[in-house]
Amino acid sequence: MAEDSTETTEENDALADALAAEHAAVWGYGVVGAALPAGQRQPVVAAENAHRDVRDRLTALLAERGEDPAGPEGGYALPFPVLSAVDAANLAVTVEDGVVAAWVRVLGRAGERATRELAMGALGGAEVRAVSWRAAAGKTTTTSALPGLPAR
Fold first, then answer.
1. Is residue 43 part of a domain?
2. Would residue 121 count as lying in a domain?
3. In this predicted model, what pLDDT tens digit does every residue of 108-148 receive, in sequence order?
4. I need a labelling partner for 57 at 20 to 30 A (CA). Which of 40, 117, 121, 152 fits?
5. Number of CB atoms found within 10 A of residue 61's CB
6. Tens-digit pLDDT profile for residues 1-37
7. pTM to 2 decimal places
8. How many domains are there within the chain?
């Protein structure tokens, strides 16, 4: 069954938004790592590499579809000052929550099975990382029943 062009456009637009979130995540983890002592940076490196991998897959996918994938911005505004390890963990939570929300939007617009599989993998990985960072930030609730969806 062929997709109509509106469905394809909506899917590609959602993928472009997810790409923007992945670019921001890569940048954000640079800030997170800079705020942590060297001995605590391994999870940062792993998270940044995971986001780089997804970013690269998305860039290639959009290019294959004839889209012009956007590159990263020169910098991003921080939602709050990052002056401690707890601030760094909170920033990592914010980054991962943004990525999760972007991938939920992809799921809502995905017409192709491969796109849904990519979205579920990226969403799942981001939520697992977010749980660890919520714990590191001292949050009492570390999980969400429906990650990426607005709280009711």
1. yes
2. yes
3. 999 999 999 999 999 999 999 999 999 999 998 877 766 66
4. 40
5. 17
6. 445 677 789 999 999 999 999 999 999 999 999 999 9
7. 0.90
8. 1
